[in-house]
Amino acid sequence: MTDSADPRRELPSLDHLLSTEEAAESVIRWGRPAVTDALRIVVDEFREELRVGTRQIRQVREAEILAAAEGYLTRLDIPGLRPVLNGTGVVLHTNLGRAPLPQAALTRLLSVGRGYCNLEFDVASGERGDRYEHCSTWIRRLTGSEDALVVNNTAAAIALVVNRLADRKQVIVARGELVEIGGSFRLPELIRASGGILVEVGSTNRTRAEDYRAAIGPQTGLLLKVHPSNYRIEGFTEQTELADLVRVGEEASIPVAHDLGSGLLMPGLAPLLPAEPTPGESASAGADLVMWSGDKLLGGPQAGVVHGRKKWIARLRQSPMLRAFRVDKLTLAALEATLQLYANPDRAAAEIPALARLAEPAGSVRARAERLLQRLEPSMRDRVQVVDLMSLVGGGTFPGVELPSAGWRIDGPYGRVEEACRSAIPPLIGRIEADSFVVDFRTLSPGDDDEAAAVLIRHVLAPGEAASDA
């Protein structure tokens, strides 16, 4: 191809494109540097397509380049982190942000985040204050513990405890409790990375108090018990009760830490779930330190709560690692507001979204799905069926526990339907079940029902939107 026949020579220059009326309007919205970069990227893409022959036309119209640049800037302007509608049926969906925050926490976030606050300032005395006190007061009150701390997450809490209490010392853990926390992040690796020397005791399915007692030696620094919140061993099993492990620790003057995982504060607030130890019960059983998550069954922001005996919390406060695990004012604000709701359990049950979604009876979920179906046009209603479903708790909690639920099964090739809903604004995330796309209404709050239906109407159920082959 000669230079005179090269279609790339016909591409308009950046200076010319920037002088157009369309580009001027884009500059007002996004700024000249951003528009210049977008035009350069689009022109380069067109030039490459012309070079390899994937674009066959001899000339590229100016309007086509400008429209492509506008589209690029529009896509760039969409936030990377944005709301989605959860129709998966997994209440604490890790990939979808786990627990939605209660309105009280959102209000507190706005109040604290929009200006200055007393994060580390004691208003009463006029002196420097303690950032942890904002939440530790409520944690002490709700768990009966002597003191408390808040860090980034439960993994950070374990790392802090191990590093401060058992650095270059032995950490004794039951073999059946060496869990993988998530994202291929395993407890044995975390213990070693935090400076502890892991000592496994018992067998995979059976561990007794005597196993711990026999493993204790001069270099033992910590007895760690891990609640099986994200796994289950069934059959011929035996676990050492926390109270028995505490007695072993007291005999040897070795602290006992209990990793509770999900941290359900009050069992009555999740009546559909099996009973499991609460943070307060672990403290009452004598655990020196108790650790659990703020963004799972508590229903607050991502955080790791550590509470227990004052002398051990004081040791943690002295650790240089605490600053690396320190939470900011927004996390503390949201967590404090969430904890305050538990002062009135009825209010917590009604206002904490995760608890409300977990406690809603299946009949109520089905009634919401049926009411919304009746509001659809008859032609759309023919493509939707209300079906019984099973929901999951999620977030690595209550493995194997399913909650009866209900939702919509959408007629049409499931791949095409799923993609259309996922590409919507806001995206509606459902699940594929029995070669159908289903939307579980348990994880759609009553305020999200209409929005989810609107997504389906616009992108799936509207006339002319019938999907082709998956």
List keywords for this structure.
alpha/beta; 470 residues; Aspartate Aminotransferase, domain 1; single chain; disordered C terminus; five-stranded mixed beta sheet; 20 helices; Aspartate Aminotransferase, domain 2; 18 strands; globular; seven-stranded mixed beta sheet
Structure write-up:
The strands form five sheets. The protein has a seven-stranded mixed β-sheet, sandwiched between helices. Strands 2-14-15-18-17 form a five-stranded mixed β-sheet. Strands 1-16 form a two-stranded parallel ribbon. The chain is of the alpha/beta class and 470 residues long. The chain has helices at 14-18, 21-30, 32-52, 62-77, 103-113, 133-143, 154-166, 187-193, 209-215, 242-252, 279-284, 310-317, 321-324, 329-341, 345-351, 353-359, 362-374, 378-381, 414-422, 446-461; strands spanning 85-86, 90-92, 121-122, 127-128, 147-151, 170-174, 180-182, 185-186, 197-201, 220-226, 256-261, 289-293, 304-308, 384-394, 397-410, 428-429, 431-433, 436-440. It contains 20 helices and 18 strands. The chain has three domains: 3-77, no CATH class; 85-93 and 356-461, Aspartate Aminotransferase, domain 1 (Alpha-Beta Complex), CATH 3.90.1150.180; 102-351, Aspartate Aminotransferase, domain 2, CATH 3.40.640.10.
Uncertain spans, ≥5 residues at pLDDT below 50? 466-470
Overall number of domains: 3
Number of DSSP helical runs: 20
- Can you identify the CATH superfamily of the largest domain? Type I PLP-dependent aspartate aminotransferase-like (Major domain)
Q: Please state the overall shape, judged from the principal axes of the Cα atoms.
A: globular
Report Rg.
Answer: 28 Å
Profile the largest sheet. 7 strands, mixed
**Helix- and strand-based class?**
alpha/beta
CATH class of the largest domain: Alpha Beta
- Lateral strand order in the biggest sheet: 5-13-12-11-10-6-9
